[in-house]
Amino acid sequence: MKSQFYYWEKDLRKLINCWDFIPGAPSDEFDALNHKILIHLTKGSDNEKLFNVLKSELISYYGLDPIDKDILKLTEEIVNWWDKQ
């Protein structure tokens, strides 16, 4: 399971980094968020919970001001990615 989690982290990192929330940020900038999302995914959290985690973390931890429709789209992309795992 540990090696599978590592694979998921790498794959999800690519997906999150595609959004370029902080242009020029190191590739591991969102690893804390990545880890939180994976924990919720493995526990079976629903889309609403994932949306709230993303929104909260992007605002409180990273100091960003994301638009809800963007967070919703990212949530959908993450769930679609997860469904293929």
Mean pLDDT: 94
Number of domains: 1
Number of strands: 0
Shape, please? globular
Proportion of beta-strand residues: under 5%
Uncertain residue segments: none
Question: Which helices and strands occur, and which strands form pairs?
Answer:
Layout (H helix, E strand, L loop, with lengths): L1 H16 L13 H12 L4 H15 L6 H16 L2
Helix pairs in contact: 1-2, 2-3, 3-4
Could you please describe the fold and organization of this structure?
The protein has one domain (2-9, 32-83). The chain has 85 residues and is an all-alpha fold. The two termini are 13 Å apart. The mean pLDDT is 94. The protein is globular, with a radius of gyration of 12 Å. The chain has 4 helices and no strands. It has helices at residues 2-17, 31-42, 47-61, 68-83.
Descriptive terms for the model:
mainly alpha; single chain; 0% strand
Short description:
With 85 residues, the protein is an all-alpha fold. Helix content is 69%, strand content 0%.
